[in-house]
């Protein structure tokens, strides 16, 4: 139990502090431990805030574990008239079930009055200062958890069903102690604007994303003056109802070796397509059996309406947002539906949602720059960085490595892998395989985040050398949804980003006009993999299930089909990257073309998906926009990443004169997979 309740995404840039977990890490197993926790709170060390403050705070905050008094030194939560019903986050602040007739009461009873159990922001030196002044929480932000009920169907008043959206907010001003408000009117208040964030997917969890990046986002874009709020879109993660079409994660996994087979290793692509298609038919049937007409209510048009409800609940006249990847699709749809509500909205890693109306569009529109990213980036920057920083640049047979030589070596390695998988043994999982398909999908995932490159280069180098251990370990890390190390409990799966993602993508292209027979799909598969052997397969499998969508949900609700050129209250800022493996710059430019004066584009020259390859120039423009509403005059501005892959931390090391201690590649890879789980959850788990 202990293991499954570890926060998977809890590590921020400052890993020393472990968060006392919001609901985002609650797995089925953890739920049982929550029940245990309610009965025996002392059994669960994770709930006590770790770190030096825990012990020292006891001197200042009087509280008692068994206290029936639900008043804290900060008063009682939720506050009256708070539409999100925020409580300071603890492990129990999960939205109440939909069939709970007294949901508000259930929710209120989850308030834990002990501030030492809450998730406060990092201290940045204020903790010591605070302690000396008698208050360890003074001047610290806090994570608040809440939920918002919205109509499942905005277009049908006689349908009373709701979606219950989980939200997590980082409030920069923290909380005000009882009585403090009289002396300091800004403590514990919401900020003037709230930066609403969405990481992508479809299927990425906005609440988990908030836990991971909220403090960084408010620092980056608003000098830590604006609150940050993330929500789980309908069907996702802690929002209810949660979508999963397999009763157990293990059932989903047992298909996976066969279901993601790549074109290059399919004896007969046609037969493989028949297999995958039959399996998709079975899965969508299961979605129907389990969720009935819910599949009608998950499209991006309804998600955008939910976002408007969030803005209204925030009480802000216009939306401030940082929406990434598929989140930019939500943003484009939002701007078109609610042009008068658009405030300072950044769309980073820009899609062009019009493409997603076409058959397979979500797949084929993503391919432009993945191969370049592999060639110029992963391989090219490796050679430039040299053997000290990239294993693949180590001289081979005494000869220095050239880009063309390295590319030929990798082609040979992949060619031999396509002939036959490489067997491996791992103490943790026993017998295992390095397969072509799994490796290429992982290579594709690596292109999203150049920080993963040294680890992947090390794994490929060793694999080439006949040692498959590291490669197999890296693949195992992402292979399964089911965690074989978790205790065997009869716990059904919670939400699944795979099936949810499918239903969203398919709803958005429901009325596509292209033919839909397997011959057409076979031709598309060939074309996509010709264009990009790295991303073509993964992207095809994202869209192929849509063949079976209309059979069950012919009339998805609220899908947006209008133009994207509405006159907005305020122009949006698009950021698109030259080497983005998922949202090519070309798409950002096409969107800009359509939006005209209602947008500006930052062409961000760098590697990876969205602007994670940091550029001072991009940061400066984005901050001026979010803080002041100012935009470049030019339609398009170029910005260049500050550093090169493989060399991100080099100066830092030199400066601190520490002996170059290589990072554990598996640790680097695990961190990368967490990052990936937000923007493309389906790549987080590949066969
Ligand atoms: C939400 O997402 C987090 C991070 O991916 C995961 O650990 C957690 O189990 C999810 N919670 C639910 C209720 O699905
Ligand atoms: C509206 O909701 C009612 C009640 O659920 C349902 O009977 C009706 O079919 C719905 N109308 C449409 C157009 O979906
Ligand atoms: C008032 O509260 C804000 C937000 O917590 C804090 O930044 C500020 O320092 C406080 N001012 C005083 C005078 O305590
Ligand atoms: C945000 O995080 C990035 C990468 O983790 C880091 O380089 C940057 O300095 C952080 N920015 C702020 C303002 O904290
Ligand atoms: C990205 O793809 C486009 C084709 O759509 C191409 O023109 C451009 O050169 C590519 N970018 C890079 C950096 O290779
Ligand atoms: C194979 O690689 C693993 C992981 O990098 C390493 O620990 C091990 O020592 C290597 N084995 C041999 C025989 O070199
Ligand atoms: C694949 O490419 C060929 C040649 O360009 C084209 O004729 C065909 O229509 C494409 N197939 C699909 C499904 O787009
Ligand atoms: C949007 O573009 C369409 C053509 O696609 C045009 O007819 C319409 O006038 C434009 N609307 C605005 C507000 O510019
Ligand atoms: C915002 O505007 C103020 C006043 O014009 C200016 O001093 C400040 O530098 C601007 N901030 C940014 C981030 O551009």
Automatic annotation (TrEMBL):
Name of the featured protein: Peptidase S33 tripeptidyl aminopeptidase-like C-terminal domain-containing protein
Family: Belongs to the peptidase S33 family.
Pfam families noted in UniProt: Abhydrolase_4
Tagged with keyword Nucleotide-binding: no
One Gene Ontology term of the molecular function aspect: hydrolase activity
Region annotation Disordered: where it falls in the sequence: 51-75, 111-134
Residue ranges constituting the Peptidase S33 tripeptidyl aminopeptidase-like C-terminal domain according to the UniProt record: 538-639
Source species: Corynascus novoguineensis
Transmembrane segments: 21-40
Compositionally biased spans, kind Polar residues: 52-64
Keywords: Hydrolase, Membrane, Transmembrane, Transmembrane helix
